[in-house]
Amino acid sequence: MMPFMGHEVDWASSAYEAELSLQSQCHDLVLLDFGCACLDSFDLLRRYRKRGAQAAVVALIPQGLFASPMVVLDSGADDYLMKPFELEDLRARVRLSMRRPQCLQGRVALGNLSVNALDHSVWLDGLPVSLRPSEYRILIALVNEPTRVFTRSELALHLDGQPRVALGNAVDVVVHGLRRKLGAEKVVTVRGVGYRLCQSA
Asked: What does the pLDDT average to over 24-40?
């Protein structure tokens, strides 16, 4: 075990070590490197989820490895960070994942809005809603913590893994798309701060 940001870290340097470590199911957070040649990361992640493990999984993805990082999310990861990245970006991602009371597992219903994290489906008034990947990721962040106000910078983490102020406008565009598809009242603007999910959603 090694310390990192006050956490105990279990480091695996081979596929065998990673498998043994994940079988313990005692982790609060898993960082899975999809650029590691010694791992079949997809297979490892699928087996981990199949065992019913519910720890948050953050995928570390080399630039250009996949056409879309959604393939990693569809395989069971909760979040991702593009490589190369700054250590502060990793710290921010770990803090963000660790303070979630519980990552979405299965179906969550909030009023007339329903989200199924297993197949990434969203339903409103019993009807399916088609969301862009960016819209879905922002919605997941809001649903995970429905009473919390997110700054634009925090929500930007869910767009491309980089907490850049410049992405604030992109967050506004995504939120506009969510409001258009789910209803303007679903995402509340907290003036001078950011956004939160409507608590009566």
From this structure: 82
Those residues with Cβ within 8 angstroms of residue 74's Cβ, 6 or more apart along the chain or in another chain: 120
Distance CA 201, CA 133 (A): 21
pLDDT reading at 167 higher than 90? no
CA 161/CA 149 separation, integer angstroms: 19
The answer to whether the bond into 84 is cis (omega within 30° of 0) is yes
The listed range with the strongest mean pLDDT (40-54, 77-91, 179-193) is 179-193
- Domain annotation for the chain: domains and CATH numbers: 2-98 (3.40.50.2300), 107-197 (1.10.10.10)
Distance set, CA 9 to CA 127, 140, 186 (Å): 43, 26, 38
Instruction: Using CB atoms within 10 Å of the CB of residue 178, give its burial: 0 to 12 exposed, 13 to 18 middle, 19+ buried.
Output: buried
pLDDT tens digit string along 75-126? 888 788 888 888 888 888 787 776 654 444 567 777 888 888 777 789 998 8
Cβ atoms of residues 108 and 117 within 8 Å: yes
